[in-house]
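Changelog-adjacent note: as of this version, every example in the card shows the full chain rather than a window. The one below runs 295 residues end to end.
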Amino acid sequence: MQGETLQEEPKGKTAEKKEAFAKYTAKDSVFSTLFRDKKYLMQLYHALHPEDAETTEDALTDITIRNVLTNGIYNDLCFRVGDKVMFLVEHQSSWTMNIIIRVLMYLAQIYHDYFEEQDADLYGSKKVHVPEPELYMIFTGERTDRPETISLSKEFFGGKESAIEVKVKVLYGGKGNDIISQYVDFTKVYNEQVKQYKRSRKAVTETIRICKDRDVLREFLAGREKEVISIMMALFDEEKIIRTHIASEKKETARKAAENMLKTGKMSAEEIAGYFMELSVEDVLEIEKGLHQTI
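Full-length structure tokens:
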């Protein structure tokens, strides 16, 4: 609704809440949440193939690599339409040709998973079925004179014909009010609000309010307002815990190195402390005291 505003928290309660800030990956979080919903995934498919009026939501299968429990590769979005076409969609706010290499790696993993799922005999004489790939990058930065397609051969092999080729179509939005254009507009509104309010809750809530007023992802944002705010935000305490943990790990590494240096007996505590930002002279003297006690 025009002029719709979000309710402000009562002042008494605000002070009690932990300080929060918008995640650096806020736009990524919205992208993932948006297209995990088949309704919006279907809208994405129609934006890519407006001529297809027959495909239904039931034909779409989300096969995005997520690797929740491992440190393997993961990508933004991949889905299949039946067994005919494989769509791999990445999104970028900064321009990089390395996306072509990443897409190639994702595609290899996705095909591997597909053949495993199908129990395909890659060593047999019968030709296996391979879904046709369509590769896209949604670019949310400034377009300027960016190309509509980027390719492996042109960007990495000087345009020479190669044994392998990868072509990625770049989508910039701006074509009516399709879901791609709306997502790109959402990211631009968010960037504007971050410039004004930093990575604060205000930046997130204002982004949602403005986008709803402008009919940008309106239905998605209105139906999941609390969820969207939640996925775009992170508690300050969580970031502090991470920073503290990293600092602790660095200090422990420095302590072990200082201990080894003390064992040689060639350097004073003052000299050793000069090598490490994480350790004071008192810290090194404490380590030295501990060594003497264990002898």
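Structural remarks: The chain has two domains: 19-234, 240-294.
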